[in-house]
Structures are given as C-alpha cells and as structure tokens.
C-alpha cells in the first residue's frame, strides 16, 4: 500500500512540475470501462470506510459521488480508487459569480485531499440543461470555466478532469439514432459549453436509462431490446447499422447529435445507467429479475471493451446507478430501488459481486481491474 501511495505522490508532483505540453498529459477521470455511482440519500447505508471495503472487494475502481463530502474523501484516502466528486447544482450560481469562489471550493474540496485521495474529476452540476426550467442554463458554462481556471491556478488541470452530466432530455429525434439532434431549447447553452469542453479535452457525459425509455412506451419497445436480451433489434437505414440493444442506440444517437453540432471527435461516457428492482403499479418493468438481467448483461457488455456500431474503436465506459438503494430519494418507488446492494451490504440480486457481509468481501485486497 505504501509503495502505491508513493507512486501516486510521485506522479502528482511530476504533473505539478511539468509546464511542457509535450510531456504533460490530459486529465482522464475514467480508467477501464466499469464504474459506479455512490449515492447517499439514505439514513441506513454503510459508513464510507465499509463502502471502500465493498468497492475493493468488488474490484470497482471508478466511483462517482454527487458532492464532495469530506467524510467520504477521507475514507477514500490511500485506497487506489478513482473518484469523481460533484459540485451540486445549488452551488453553480455562487461559483459562476466569482473566480475566487470557485478557487475556494476547489482548494477546500479537491486540493486539500490530493494526492492521497485520488480525485480524478469534478462533475460541475448534474442534468442542468434540458430540465423543465432552464434557470441554471445561463450559469453552467461560467461555473465550468471558473472551476477550470481554479484548477489551472493550482496546477491541477492535468490531474483533475472537468465534466457535467446531461440527461437524454437534451436530445431530440433520437429514433432512429441517425436522426438525432440537440433539442432547440438547449442549443444556446450547449454549443458554447461543448466548444469549451473540446478545448480542454473533456468528454460528453450522458445519463442514459433504457428502463425509463421502456416505461415511456412499453407498447412499442421490446423489453428484451432494453435488457440486452436476444431480439430483432432495430435497423438504422441511413447509417446502415443494426442495434441489438437500446443503450448502444442511445449512445450513437448522442454521437450523431454531437457530429451535427460540429463535435465529431468528442467521446461519450455514460455517467448513469441502471434498472430499478422495485416500482409503483405503473412501473411493472421494475422487478428484481429485470434489474438483475440488465445489470448482469451490461457488466458483460462493458467487459468486452468494445464500442458502439458508430464508434467501434471507442470502448464504452459506464458508471452504474447505483451502489445502494436510497430510502430518502424523492419521486416514484423506482427511484429508491436502483441499488446493486441493500443497505446492510448484502446483495440486492446477484450479478457476480461479493456481499459486504461475507468474510471473503471483508478480507479481499486484490488488484482493481474493472
């Protein structure tokens, strides 16, 4: 463990001392293909140190949280886990208003924990564009720029990547994928944001839920198509490709929208995807069997390290939603039942991960591979 920490510190110092762009490398928040969202809107989930044990046992290296809680950041110190922290929507106006505010936030919540806690990314806001109210649309880019400016002042811009996650509400005409564009109501905010992300080398981050798409139109969508099961799929005549699962189609629709907007080379990363194991009466597809099927097949899909039909050379990367069921989340019952694990650390359903309560999970300290 000590040798690993010394290596992290050496690489961190090397980046700080490197002003030559030929020698320095761009920040990359996601290593491998599989990650998970560690949401904490619950009063009954394990403490952060036990969560670290669970993640290491499951060999899940990439983790996203929705804030920068210091208890969590301290628990992740020295673990080798790669962490993306969130700057919540409620902080966007403050950070947009002043570079000093952004600098203070980055100092307090990022710099002070490096390099022992491997903070690899900052997600500035979540699903800001495309919301029913675009109140924060006008401050998102300013907040992103101020956070990036703070990273540069602290010589952390080659260590920590800046992103923001979008819902599929920013997309229009996504069926078939070749017809997709960005919605008119986000255009004025989206293009300048993408221009800046292209300049600093950030990906396009998408929260993509075949579960929700299926619920919206179960009469016309084959549930097997949404679950990575055998199905006829869909044929996109314009691009001459066939899709055997909905997630690939959603991602390629996003690539088409990006190309239409002038950003053909930007990578798409899935920052949330999952399937609820329980729902209300109008959420009949939210079952344990379907959740197990989706997440098991998704895990196999990501392990192949292959791309989508339109971007076959870019291995798909996805953060699963979520680590735990969260009993304090608002909304329909499904919102509180996306977890791979129950609050006590036992499995919500088995897709091949060890349970926190098992002795093997507690003692395992293997390498992080996924």
Automatic annotation (TrEMBL):
InterPro entries the UniProt entry points to: GH, Glyco_hydro_17, Glyco_hydro_17_plant
GO molecular function: glucan endo-1,3-beta-D-glucosidase activity
Signal sequence residues: 1-26
Biological process (GO), any one: carbohydrate metabolic process
EC number per UniProt: 3.2.1.39
EC category: hydrolase
Catalytic activity: Hydrolysis of (1->3)-beta-D-glucosidic linkages in (1->3)-beta-D-glucans
A Pfam short name: Glyco_hydro_17
Record-linked SUPFAM superfamilies: (Trans)glycosidases
Keywords: Glycosidase, Hydrolase, Signal
Family to which this protein belongs: Belongs to the glycosyl hydrolase 17 family.
PANTHER family per record: GLUCAN ENDO-1,3-BETA-GLUCOSIDASE BG1-RELATED-RELATED
Name used for this protein in its record: glucan endo-1,3-beta-D-glucosidase
UniProt source species: Eucalyptus grandis (Flooded gum)
């Amino acid at each position: 463990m000590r040798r690993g920490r010394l290596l992290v510190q050496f690489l961190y110092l090397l980046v700080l001392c490197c002003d030559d762009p030929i020698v320095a490398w761009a920040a990359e928040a996601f290593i491998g293909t599989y990650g998970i969202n560690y949401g904490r809107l619950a009063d009954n989930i394990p403490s952060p140190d036990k969560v670290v044990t669970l993640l290491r046992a499951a060999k899940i290296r990439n983790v996203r949280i929705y804030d920068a809680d210091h208890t969590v950041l301290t628990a992740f110190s020295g673990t080798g886990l790669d962490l993306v922290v969130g700057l919540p929507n409620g902080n966007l106006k403050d950070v947009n208003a002043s570079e000093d505010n952004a600098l203070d936030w980055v100092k307090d919540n990022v710099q002070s924990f490096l390099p022992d806690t491997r903070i690899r990314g900052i997600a500035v806001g979540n699903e800001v564009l495309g919301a029913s109210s675009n109140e924060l649309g006008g401050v998102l880019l300013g907040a992103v720029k101020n956070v990036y400016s703070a990273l540069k002042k602290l010589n952390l811009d080659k260590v920590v990547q800046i992103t923001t996650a979008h819902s599929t509400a920013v997309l229009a005409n996504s069926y078939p994928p070749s017809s997709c564009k960005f919605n008119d109501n986000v255009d004025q905010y989206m293009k300048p944001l993408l221009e800046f992300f292209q300049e600093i080398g950030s990906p396009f981050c998408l929260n993509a839920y075949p579960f929700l798409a299926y619920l919206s139109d179960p009469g016309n969508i084959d549930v097997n198509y949404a679950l990575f099961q055998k199905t006829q799929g869909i044929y996109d005549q314009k691009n001459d490709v066939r899709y055997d699962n909905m997630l690939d189609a959603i991602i390629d629709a996003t690539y088409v929208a990006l190309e239409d907007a002038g950003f053909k080379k930007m990578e798409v990363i899935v920052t949330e995807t999952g399937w609820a194991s329980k729902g209300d009466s109008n959420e009949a597809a939210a079952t344990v069997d379907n959740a197990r099927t989706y997440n098991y097949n998704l895990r196999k899909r990501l392990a192949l390290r292959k791309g989508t039909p339109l971007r076959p050379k870019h291995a798909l990367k996805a953060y699963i939603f979520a680590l735990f069921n969260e009993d304090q989340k608002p909304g329909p019952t499904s919102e509180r039942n996306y977890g791979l694990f129950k609050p006590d650390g036992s499995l919500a359903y088995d897709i091949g991960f060890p349970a926190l309560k098992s002795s093997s999970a507690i003692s395992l300290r293997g390498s992080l591979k996924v």
